[in-house]
Predict the structure.
Amino acid sequence: MKTISIVSPCFNEEDNVANCYETVKSIFDKELPGYRREHIFIDNASTDRTVDILREIAAKDSDVKVVVNARNFGVFRSTFNGLRYATGDGVVVMLPVDLQDPPELIPEFVELWESGYDVVAGARSTREEGFVMRNARGLFYRIVNGLSDVWLEPSVGEFQLIDRKVLEAVLAHNDHYPYIRGIIASCGFRRIIKPYVWQARKSGLTKHSLMALTDQALNAIFSFTRAPMRFCTISGLVIAAGCILFSLISAVLFFFNPDQAPRGTTTIIVSLFFLSGIQMLFIGMLGEYITSIHNQVRGGPIVTEQERINIEGPARDPALTRDERLA
C-alpha cells in the first residue's frame, strides 16, 4: 500500500486544526481507501490551544505526526523541516490548516501522479481576496520571472503533490531560508498544473502580514537571481559614463562659450543627492546578499524543535536512501 504524506503548518489555529484533520481523514476514507495517510502537523509555537488539540488527535490516530517548534520560525522553514519527516511515496508539500487550498483536490492530484507526473502543482487561478493583494501578487511574479533564471509559474504555491524522488532533490538543498516553490521549480521533473479557486478564510485571522509577504518576496528575488547585483553593476557604469560625458561637455562649453556652461549650486546639489540615493540603493542590495550569505555560513538547524509526537528519532537525513529512512 502506497503512502501519501500531507504537511500542514499551523500557528494559533485552534479553530481550524481539528477541521483540517477530519476533512483530510474523510477524503482518504471515502476517495483514497487504497492509500495510507500520513498527516504531519508543524506547529510554530502557538500560544492558544492548537498544540493541545493536536496532542488529542495524535493520541487517537497514529497516522498523525506532530512537530512543535520552540518558537515561530516562519511558514517556509517550518514546512521544509516537516518535509524531512515525510515517509510517503507521494507528498503534499503544504496544506495549511485554514483549508484555503482545497484538500478535495488531493484525490485528483494522486490520480495525475499515478499517471506518471512527478509534480502535480495546484495553481490559484481564481482568488477570493482583495483587489490590491491580487494585483500585488501579479506584480511580484512579473518581477521575479523577469529577473530569475528559474521560471516560477504564476499563482503556483506550495500546494503541490510531489513524487518521492522530487522530495529527495528538494531536501538536498541546504538553505537557511528555503523558498520551497522556487526550489521545486528549479529541480525540474515532469510537471502538470491544476487550476483551482483559492478560497477565503472561513475562521481565524491570516498570519501573513504585509511585512511577512514582503520578506518572502525579497527572499525569492535574492535567492534565485543575480539580476539585482547585475543591475547595480550596469547602472554604475552608465552613471559613471554619464558623469564623464557631462564633465567633457561642460569643459567644452566653458572654453567655447562660457555663458552657456552649466553653473550654480542647484546642479551640484541635485547630482549629489541623486548619486547618494543610487549608492544607498546599491549598498542595500549588496547588504541583502551579504546577510543571506552570513546566515547561510553560520549553519545551525533550520528550526529548533520543542516536542515531537508519534515520531521516533530525529528528522531524516536527506542523504539517506528511502529504505534507510524507513528502517
Residues 265-298 form the longest helix (34 residues). The longest strand covers residues 2-10. The radius of gyration is 25 Å. Confidence is low (pLDDT under 50) at residues 318-322.
